[in-house]
Amino acid sequence: MEPIKTKVSRIINTDQVLSCDLNNYNTLFGGVLMKRLDSAATLSARRHSRAKECVTASTDHIDFLCPIHQTDSVCIESFVSYTGRTSMEIFCKVIAEDMMNGDRRIAATAFLTFVALDENKRPLEVPGVIPETDEEKFIFETAKARAEMRKLRRTQSKELAQNLNLNKPWD
């Protein structure tokens, strides 16, 4: 399977911040942004794998770097930054732009992992990526360390789950 240039999976989605998206601090709810990130990342994964269905395997982390205000636009850029045999790491960058003065800032970054599924809901092999820009190359070159951390964290999460009970707290 031939690797694909990173730019093929690039999704850019810009939207305004509505009053219904705001929390009690008059900034964008983190959960609203998380939904937008997952949506953009899904499209990047599907575009890269050309699979009908891609599912979120994990959200590694979302770093909220500065608040997003109602006067801002929110631009989410996502692309497949690294692949395993069946998994895809998706990098998301959030740029907030003050629509009154044009100031732009990195408001958040995130890494999500997706798996493409075949018609039987089984993981599908995905092509590798070819990074081209300095930003893509930097993210690609640092991906193996993140992949190792993901494996360790997944093992720890499974161990944790085995030690949790399913009892209702009020019983």
Q: What does the secondary structure layout of this molecule look like, with pairings?
A:
Layout: E1 4-5, E2 11-16, H1 30-49, E3 53-64, E4 72-83, E5 87-98, E6 104-117, E7 129-130, H2 134-141, H3 143-162
Parallel strand pairs: 1-7
Antiparallel strand pairs: 2-4, 3-6, 4-5, 5-6
Describe the protein's architecture and organization.
The structure is a single chain. The protein is an alpha+beta fold. It has 3 helices and 7 strands, in the order E-E-H-E-E-E-E-E-H-H. The strands form 2 sheets. A 5-stranded antiparallel beta sheet has the order 2-4-5-6-3, with helices on both faces. The longest helix is centred in the N-terminal third of the chain and has 20 residues. The radius of gyration is 18 Å and the shape is globular. It starts with a strand and ends in a 9-residue tail after the last helix. The mean pLDDT is 96.
In short:
With 171 residues, the protein is an alpha+beta fold. The chain is 28% helix and 35% strand.
